């Protein structure tokens, strides 16, 4: 399973309830309501959540960033879900499923009585309409920067318009009556069921997709423009919350879906407010103007705890990396890539910029994931070796355009600018000239890196599900614009690993792949870290997911 490779989390002192209410109201009228911070269960209350950035888009098929999926996870639902707090597969819109012996046919039995937010019924035909929509994307919608996860998981389309796309894994969808969906694949996949838990496979109302012109995309791969209003004003799914309004840079509001098929959400409303810096999010929590936030700076954790806030830790299921785009000539030179790997002092970056529990990453997967092996080439910090490799490369006065984002904070990259400065100093000490290029995370940075237009860039990946394919296959199973290289040995090994039904054989294949990748040096993994969330003392029921599939439906304000 391949992906283009981007990506993808307590304060206020124990404030008196009335103070929290007043502050919340001050930032959003009477958003919080009189029950927002009092004692007891606030059944009609409002949660104000500080996100690190605005979502890119609210059409699940067209996003790949964590801030978008955080919101769409509340609006849309997938056929299968992720177990709360874990990585296992659980029922979603499908209450059960069966897999054929050849792993090419998946049969899902849907829940009955489910309706979209616009009143349309959720049935097998509606599910198949979503799969057929994705499979039949054309033009700009086929680019990695737009339909990232479809390209990742299903590889291609009904009619590929680029030679970088592969033959589609999607073999068709059939509605057998109202409640049975038969999904067919063109070849076996040991990872596709887990992949369907991704928020990008959220099932949308076919009527709303048509009425609000969801597929209208213009602009360029680097800067797509969504001219339809489905993903900005009318995202309609089946989830426990419904879209209410969105003013970019200010707030995005969701309201409880009182017609939800399952247990109703405890909250009446959620307000997402973008606050770029972790320190500012922490201060907003202390001041009582927000109830919770993700991506707390590890340096703030003790002060948050001492102020009476709750601190929640997500188990590390991520890695930060320095990526290379071989779309540029200098990055095609393997000795230059090796020189960069030896130039970077990863231990210093982790020690300086990361908190407790963080460690140096040597592979493009967490060391806690099954099939991880340390039996591959390592690149220790060695400036002299880096200089030697530059001399051997034949590149005189090597210049690197180094991209890094603003307006974002991630567990694998809490301080992008700080990481950049440390790495820039390392590269210059080894003999590189560094040209900085900074841009906002969404949409500029994400679009530029996914299009392969950043020769050297900072990114990372938080796992979406518990399979090595979600890391190694995400990045390197076939050609992607972001990395812009072709290495058939790597592609073939990862493809074989995805198809292999035997677990022991899969482990050996992923171990082999890690060795091939380390030798090829498509980038430099450098950090893996737990992430931390913060919430006011009266926030209960928040279950952080290691794959970031948090449901806010269980949250209450006491």
| SS-based class | alpha+beta
Helical content stands at 25-40%
Going across the major beta sheet, what is the strand order? Answer: 10-11-12-1-13-20-14
- Whole-Å distance between the termini? 43 Å
Oligomer: single chain
Mean model confidence by pLDDT: 89
Reported for the largest beta sheet, the result is: 7 strands, mixed
Shape: globular
Based on CA atoms alone, the radius of gyration comes out at 23 Å
Figure out the total of helices: 16
| pLDDT < 50 runs, ≥5 residues | 2-43
State which percent range the strand residues make up.
15-25%
Counted beta strands: 22
Explain how this protein is built.
The structure is a single chain. This protein is about 30% helix and about 20% strand. With about 550 residues, it is an alpha+beta fold. It has a seven-stranded mixed sheet with strand order 10-11-12-1-13-20-14, sandwiched between helices. The protein has a five-stranded mixed sheet with strand order 17-16-18-15-19. Helix 9 runs antiparallel to helix 11 (about 385-395) and helix 15 runs antiparallel to helix 16 (about 505-520). The two termini are about 45 Å apart.
Would you summarize the structure shown here?
The chain has 558 residues and is α+β, with helices and mostly antiparallel strands.
What labels describe this entry?
seven-stranded mixed sheet, disordered N terminus
Q: What is the element layout, followed by pairings?
A:
Layout: H1 17-28, E1 46-51, H2 66-75, E2 80-82, E3 89-91, E4 94-99, E5 105-110, H3 124-135, H4 148-154, E6 170-176, E7 180-185, H5 192-195, H6 206-211, E8 217-219, E9 224-226, E10 241-247, E11 251-256, E12 269-274, H7 278-287, E13 292-293, H8 301-306, E14 310-314, E15 318-324, H9 334-343, H10 346-353, H11 383-393, E16 399-406, H12 416-430, E17 433-440, H13 441-450, E18 456-462, H14 472-476, H15 488-499, H16 503-520, E19 523-527, E20 531-535, E21 539-540, E22 556-557
Parallel strand pairs: 1-12, 1-13, 16-17, 16-18
Antiparallel strand pairs: 2-3, 4-5, 5-7, 6-7, 8-9, 10-11, 11-12, 13-20, 14-20, 15-18, 15-19, 21-22
